[in-house]
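Z., the sequence and structure:
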Amino acid sequence: MPWEWPGRRLRYQWFVSSSFGDFNKNLIKDLRANGGKATSGPFKGRDVLILTTKGARSGEDRETPLVYSWEKGHRVIVASKGGAPTHPSWYHNLKNHPIVTVEAAGEEFKARARVVEGDDYERLYKQHADLNPGFWDYRAKTTRKIPVIILERIDSDLRR
């Protein structure tokens, strides 16, 4: 592969990472500027939150925009990573530090992240994928079980 040349692979990975990072930063700015609503791009018109986790190794705050669905008053997120063979970093973070901060629909609050197991797993994955059809494609791309997480609110709006 052409990016296997000495030094080239690192530049290729930096470019991909930097472009994705820039997209997320711009989406987060858009969400914060518009009461939690994306005004352009692929997330326009969709329910999107900003999840802040504590880094599993670094302990530093990490922000990630994610689409969500609802279950009995709680937001549901899915650790698809676009169907990649590994879990996203934010999933490892919340497994180590399950108390997270959620920004959604113009409010900010603490939540406990709970990974869904058992009978509810398939039902909640289907519910999420029916609203966000790309998640059916993500599942088809990978052999790993894509985690479903419920964010259970544990306090009131932090901005008040």
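The chain has one domain: 2-153. The first strand starts at residue 48 and ends at 54.

Let me know what you think.
H.
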